[in-house]
Input
Amino acid sequence: MHIARRAIAILTVALFPAALIAQSSTGMHYGLVGGLNMSSMTDMGSTSMHPGFAIGLYARRALNDTWALQVEGHYSGKGVEVKESGVTAKLEMDYFELPMLLRASMSGTEKTHAFFDIGAAPAFKSGCSVSASGGGATVGIGCNGGTESFDLGAIGGLGLAFPIGERMMTGSVRYTFGMLNVNKDAGADTPAVHHRNLQFLFSFPF
Output
């Protein structure tokens, strides 16, 4: 219950930028955002990063020439891979994420410039599966019962905004640090598990 109350409190704080954005359409920008996830999970033994993808929408409001607020809503596929004795096991988890970001523009020209993002990403699980393959055979099962339905990540990232024609595109690299344990069975003999996710993203304005 303590974790649930803390998650609700953090979610309330994270939604504050959305309320600010909704107050005015001045300086608003909308578009698509998507790219590649390279994710892993803590305390899972010898693992390798699991590739996935993210795709969704964004709304950004400029506060001044330097600062902006950006809210996103997108699907994000995360997970981890474990290889041992010729068997590859995969844990794949699907989320609907709501990144809430504060963006600061840095050096560059008025059109082309670098920026950094910081913020939080509430994430709601939409699916979970475990599969194992080896010796020409593959088996898979669901894992919704053993994993938490909510996660919260802290985000930091760097990017570059650049014009293509009359549109301003962005490319960025982000790292999301999962702050909540997603393993329902965590205890004395079972470790807590947290997501780690490296993203390579592009955005395209409408």
Notes: Residues 2-14 form the longest helix (13 residues). Confidence is low (pLDDT under 50) at residues 1-15, 18-25. The chain is about 10% helix and 65% strand.
